[in-house]
Amino acid sequence: MFPYCRRDFDGSICHRQDKCPLLYRGGSMGSFSRITGGIGTAALAGIALGTAPPPAQAMPGLAKVVNVPCDPDALVTAIRTANGIGVAQLLLAPNCVYNYTTANATDDALPIITGDITLVGGPGTKIRRDPAAPGAFRILEVASGATLHAQGIFVLGGSTAAVGGGILNAGTIVLERVYLAGNRAGNGGALANSPNANANISFSELNANEATGVGGGAILNFGTLTMFRSTLAGNSAPINGGGLNTQPNGVSHLIQSTVDHNISGSLGGGISNLGTTTLDHSLVEQNKGSGGGGIATANANVSIENSVIRNNMPDNCSPINTIPGCVG
């Protein structure tokens, strides 16, 4: 009922927990931390979202379809062209690694998405920051008003001291069969979802990502997040939310999804909630934190329906016995 599947950075399936990367930085704080000066306020300007080009106007009719060869420069050119067109579908090469050693936009491997762009990959299509790259940069960024659809790709090894190591979203993203692994950021190791942004994730895995600042080892959410049949596993954060950190005014919906083997140095090994979080037919297990190993909340806005929260350390939910449907 609750499949357990983890993948290493290269997409190969890990059958043993000790063979999968668990990135952990310890912490001793025991309180919730809002991300101030981060994605919600001044840091937006600091990471150039405020100066991103405006979204291109979508052209009527069908999207332009472009085949992108297995060449990192070709993908950069294709995205720039697609932004100008407004609506485009980019068919990426199968079994290809689009490998980046330098950023092609401020703090990003690829140009900022400003139009309505679909990236279609698979099988084995990877977009990654080269492990030997001398500088830190994330993989993808979506501007306010823009839309990114991604299907069948791996997003690997992004790194930034800011937010969103794999993807920073200020618009709308729709991820299907996408694997985000080995990404690292100050907050939101794999994905940072900005205020008023929308993220829809289905049939996807966010594994072995790391936050180094406050929280959201896999996801930092200020906007609206919906996860369907997806997994957060083996992610870590030094303070709040080893897997998912929902900030004030953020809304996170987990449907038929799994949150397991995540680590927080403080509260919320699996999930930390300062906004609103709902779980529907989902599993939260074997996560670890200083309190609320499974789920920690700073308010009463956690709803659990037909879900299982079990075997988390040192407890399942915090404050204990305050979240209906969570015991122990």
Characterize the biggest β-sheet. Answer: 17 strands, parallel
Q: How many helices does DSSP assign?
A: 2
Give the number of DSSP strands.
Answer: 32
Q: What share of residues is helical?
A: under 10%
Distance between the termini: 22 Å
Which descriptors would you attach to this protein?
single chain; 328 residues; mainly beta; Pectate Lyase C-like; 17-stranded parallel β-sheet; eight-stranded parallel β-sheet; 2 helices; 32 strands
What would you note in describing this structure?
This protein is mostly beta strands and 328 residues long. The protein has one domain: Pectate Lyase C-like (3 Solenoid). 6% of the residues lie in helices and 39% in strands. The chain contains two helices and 32 strands. The chain has helices at residues 42-46, 72-85, and strands at residues 6-7, 13-14, 64-68, 87-92, 97-100, 116-129, 140-142, 147-156, 159-163, 167-169, 172-176, 179-181, 184-187, 191-193, 198-202, 205-207, 210-211, 219-221, 224-228, 231-233, 236-237, 244-246, 251-255, 258-260, 263-264, 271-273, 276-280, 283-285, 295-297, 302-305, 308-310, 317-318. The strands form five sheets. The chain has a 17-stranded parallel β-sheet that branches. The protein has an eight-stranded parallel β-sheet with strand order 7-10-14-18-22-26-29-32, with no helix packed on it. Strands 9-13-17 form a three-stranded parallel β-sheet, with no helix packed on it. The longest helix has 14 residues, at 72-85. It is elongated and about 55 Å long. The two termini are 22 Å apart. The model is unreliable at 1-29 and 37-60 (pLDDT under 50).
